[in-house]
Amino acid sequence: EVGILAKSYIDQGRLIPDDIMTRLMLDELKGLDRYNWLLDGFPRTVPQAKALDKECQIDTVIDLDVPFETIKCRLTARWIHPASGRVYNLEFSPPKVQGIDDITGEPLVQREDDKPETVTKRLQAYDALTKPVLEYYREKGLLKSFSGTETNKIWPHIYAFLQTKLPDVSQEDAATPR
């Protein structure tokens, strides 16, 4: 129910309101206090950060400083095969035939939140809301920023940094989403 509500905001190019996002995330984090974990994209606002801080001890915050034009180009070049979830990117992993899934021959679609106008709105909202979050964590001494435009150039630096925080994490474990 909360996920459907959240999707309605995303489809309009709007960020999910703090109360909905915080409820979603804190419910997911219950019971993970024995584990190390990495959140991607949360918290995005200071109220979300403060709510998270009340429930969990945050050790570090990683900021990926990627130019908005790079993000916009990647997202707007993304097309999917809805039935399978296969993802193509017109720039670096295009389908063999433009607009057609390689395996089924069915048409590819662009998600509503990947359309150029929606991406631009989301990036503008994201920038306005997250700058204060970065400052919040910078003031707490928890922020570490990494700048670049290519994953394969940024990741080795992030991995080396994470090794200082979690020395028992292997490269293979770090590459496996959970």
TrEMBL record:
PROSITE patterns, sorted: ADENYLATE_KINASE
Molecular functions (GO terms): AMP kinase activity; ATP binding
Stretches assigned to the Adenylate kinase active site lid domain: 78-113
InterPro entries from the UniProt entry: Adenylat/UMP-CMP_kin, Adenylat_kinase_CS, Adenylate_kinase_lid-dom, ADK_active_lid_dom_sf, P-loop_NTPase
Keyword annotations: Kinase, Nucleotide-binding, Transferase
CDD domains (alphabetical): ADK (cd01428)
Keyword Transferase listed: yes
Family: Belongs to the adenylate kinase family.
Protein name: KAD3 phosphotransferase
